[in-house]
Amino acid sequence: KLTSLALQPAVTPELVQGRVHLKCTYSRPSSKLLLRYLVVWSRLSTPGKKEQIRRDATLQSFSYVEMDGVNLRLGDTVFCTVTAFTTDAPEQQSLPEESKGFYAGIKFLPESLQIAEDGKEHVLTVLSTVPIACPGNDDSCKITLQLSTEDLGKNSQLPGPPNVALSACQVDLLRAPCSERSCAAAALTVTAVTDFAQDGNRVSRIRAEPVGQRDLLWRAYTPKDVKVTVRDLPTGNCYSFTDPHIITFDGWRYDNYKIGTFLLCRSVSRAFEVHVRQWDCGGHRSATACNCGVAAR
């Protein structure tokens, strides 16, 4: 009779007396049998391998385990497996049912980005799947994350100029009611740096580190990086050289021997323009001007 029970265990996060716990809940069958439940907690230690961390025998339709930063840490994927059996005949037991894996920690959505050097902003959401405890009565119900970027480039030994720009260097994850696997969230934008260089597609990563934390659970935790692939786009070039010969973006060529300050180029879609100042450099022999100054906005 017990083999066909649909226990459907699920793991959810919860604060218990100000400390982060995970709760395994399961359906109590509507039978008159007095059932006891064996709940086995495990975590993914290496890909494909689970490590048992706790066994709990209970009459309740739930079981708790604390995230203490030692046996269970942020960054772990946690499972609970439930078996039901009758108290008067323990040999009658149900088939063990396992929950879906619950990832406890900081998540980025999306988990990776593919963007191009086109100036577009891409929204990156950072969230905590576990509730944030308040050590004091002040505004400490938050986790502050320090964000940084690193260009993995073609030669990771020589870091180049940044390929991505973030809208913020720090974000605060403010405590909120847990819903849809999120207990706190913040959003920022990621933009590819237009570097005017044909350097191929580049890979960067965005790193987040909790700062100013007294809580061992968060202090010893480094969230997983976000991989960002930046697609290289061709860039236009224009020139002004020697006595000035000018080549425009579309390859048109002409000379400008005049003295004065000139508008070399201006964008019609953004605040970008370049001025050039030309001065006499030919003397009495010839009417020749040369670039002596440039200003770019």
TrEMBL record:
Keywords: Disulfide bond, Signal. The keyword Hydrolase does not apply. It holds the Pfam family Ig_VWDE. Residues 236-297 form the VWFD domain. InterPro entries: Dev_Signal_Modulators, Ig_VWDE, VWF_type-D. One of its GO terms (cellular component) is cell surface. Transmembrane segments: none annotated. This is VWDE protein. GO terms for molecular function: signaling receptor binding. The keyword Disulfide bond applies. The gene is Vwde_2. It comes from the Eukaryota.
